[in-house]
Amino acid sequence: MGVGMAGSGTSSLGDGIVARIDRLAEISETPEHLARIFLTPEHRAAADLLLAWMREAGMSAHLDAIGNVCGRYEGDRPGLPCLMLGSHFDTVRDAGKWDGPLGLITAICCVADLHRRGRRLPFAVEVVGFADEEGVRFASTLLGSRAVAGTFDESVLGAKDRNGLSMRDALVKFGLDPQHIGAAARVRRELLAYVELHIEQGPVLEAEHLAVGAVTAIAGATRLAVRLTGMAGHAGTVPMALRRDALTGAAACITAIEEFCRTDPDGLVGTVGYIHAMPGATNVIPGQVSFTIDIRAPTDPHRKLAVADIVRRIEAIARERQLALQIDVTHENRTVPCAPWLKAQVSEAIAAGGYRVYELPSGAGHDGMAMIDIADVAMIFVRCRGGISHHPDEHVDAADADAGARVLLRMIENFRPL
Ligand code: GLV
Ligand code: MN
Ligand code: MN
Asked: Could you tell me the pTM of the whole model?
C-alpha cells in the first residue's frame, strides 16, 4: 500500500493522515487535475485502497450496494450499536485533496490507533466513506449517504451524465445492482450517532487562530437546472433585433442572480457553476443553453424566498427575450442542526485538547445532511489555509490534521450515547 500506519501512541497521527491524503490524491481521472467521480475506475481504485486501510486498521470492511466503503470495529462484544464516523471520497473537478478524504482518513487512523492499543469500547465504531457527496456526475448530491440513510430516491436512477449514460447503467457497468440499493440502508437503532470531521472550507478558524472548531449547523441548499431555448441561426445574416439568442439570455439571468445575491444583506450566496451552449460553434447563434444554480442562505425561509425571487426574475428575462424556459430542482436540503448533546461532547474533546472552544456554522454541504434521518449528527472542523476549498490550492497543515485527529480520538474514547 506504500503508506504505513502511524507509529505507536497518537504522536504521529497527523503525518500518517497526510501520507494517506497524498496517496489517495494519486487516484484521479487525470494527473494534472484531481477528479474522482462516482462510479468511475477511479472510484473503484480509491475504494480498494480505502478498504485495505480499513482492514489494516482492524476493521471488517466491505463495499456496499451503492459503492460506499464501510468498515466496522467491534466493541467489547460483537454486534453492538455503533458510533458512525465518515466523510466522502468523491471530489469536485480540479479539486483539492482534503475535502472529504480528511475526515474519512482521520477516522480510519483513529480506529487504527485504538486497534494498535487493543482498546475496545462499549460500542462499535464504524467508518463509512461515501462514494458520492459532491453530485458532480448526476446533478443529484449525497447519493452515498442517502443510500445509507435509506432515503435514496430511485427516480434519480434515470438521471444521465454528460455523456448520456444513466446512473442505472453506470451502476451496472461498475458491477452494482440498481435494484438492490436498498441493501445499503441502515436503521436508527444500529447507530448511536454520526460524527464527521471535515476541513472548514472557509477562513473563520484561521482568522481565530484555531486549529479546530465545533459545528453548530449545516446550511441548507437548493440546486436548480435551467434550460433556455431560443432559435439557432446564422451569425452573419440574422439582424440583432430578430435574434432569440439563448446564451445572451442566460448571461442576463446569471448577472441578475449575482446582483440579487450581492445586494442581500444576510449572507445569501448564489453560484452558476456550469453552463453549456448549443450547438456551440463560433458562427452559429446559440439556440439552447443549460446552466445550473446553487443557492444557499443561513436559514431555510430566507433561502426559499430567495429561490422563488430568482425564479421570477429568470422567468421575466425569458419572457422578454422570447425564450422557452424549463427549470428543475435537482437538489434541495434543509438546514441541519448539530445535536446539542453531541456537540457538547465535541466541545469537551476540543477543550481537553487545550484549545479554545469555538462554534461555527457550515456554509458547505456535508453527508450529515442525509445522515440526520437516521442519527443525531455532529461535526468537527479543521482549519484550512486561506479558506480555500474546491480548488487545487486547498491545504491543511499536518499539525492541524493531528489536532483534528486527537479531538476525534478523544471524542470516540469518551463517547457517551444519549
Ligand atoms: C459540497 O461540497 C457542497 O457544499 O457543495
Ligand atoms: Mn466539496
Ligand atoms: Mn466535503
From this structure: 0.89
